[in-house]
Design goal:
Order of helices and strands: EHEHHEEHHEEHHHEH
Number of helices: 9
Radius of gyration: 17 Å
Structural class: alpha/beta
CATH architecture of the largest domain: 3-Layer(aba) Sandwich
Strand content: 5-15%
CATH topology of the largest domain: Rossmann fold
Helix content: 55-70%
Strand order of the largest sheet: 2-5-1-6-7
CATH class of the largest domain: Alpha Beta
């Protein structure tokens, strides 16, 4: 049976970079955030979210992402409500995806692997870490947003020590060349295990 390796890290830690390294090695990678975005544009998902959050979050048969973001980031209980809708749909999609893979293990990259409870379905977990300063700088450059906006997003995620305490491997991603060396060590261990 295909083993599931969870790959997570706080916003701006560089987990997607590590995911791309796995892909380059021929390991199947599922980027949960990307798949969730695709699921959220399906008509049935839009209607489900509209029935919970009100029809004002739907504009021209599409979700008004800015309006939803404003709602969920200011009200943690609303974020939980949204996650209760989206996470089961992503899990079902992921389970079907895994069945189609022909690999001893796959990578499930998810920003909120722990927060969503998805880590319980993983055989092993890799957490990517970087200093808060590095993460803030990366996200500000990537998303063209303020430091305060990044710090708000960081506050909504588990901190690194919470994540690493439940992880099998930790990759420090302050600079790519060092992260690649650590990645190769982790990959070697996984290939020896599976």
């Amino acid at each position: 049976m295909t083993k599931i390796i969870g790959l997570t890290g706080g916003i701006g830690s560089g987990k997607t970079t590590i995911a791309r390294l796995f892909e380059a090695e021929g390991i199947p990678v599922y980027i949960a955030d990307d798949e969730a975005k695709k699921i959220m544009i399906l008509p049935e998902t839009i209607q489900l979210i509209g029935s919970h959050f009100g029809q004002s979050v739907i504009v021209n048969n599409q979700l008004d992402r800015k309006k939803i973001s404003k709602i969920v980031f200011n009200h943690p209980e609303k974020l939980k409500e949204l996650n209760k809708i989206v996470h089961p749909l992503v899990k079902k999609h992921f389970d079907n995806w895994v069945k189609k893979q022909n690999s001893p293990f796959v990578i499930k990259e998810a920003a909120i692997l722990f927060e969503s409870g998805s880590y319980k379905y993983c055989d092993q977990i890799i957490t990517v870490v970087a200093s808060e300063e590095t993460r803030v700088t990366r996200v500000m450059a990537r998303d063209k947003c303020t430091k305060e906006a990044v710090l708000d997003r960081i506050k909504n995620q588990w901190n690194d020590s919470q994540k690493t305490s439940k992880s099998d491997y930790v990759i420090k991603n302050e600079n790519l060349s060092e992260a690649k060396i650590q990645f190769q060590e982790v990959l070697k261990k996984l290939r020896n295990l599976y």
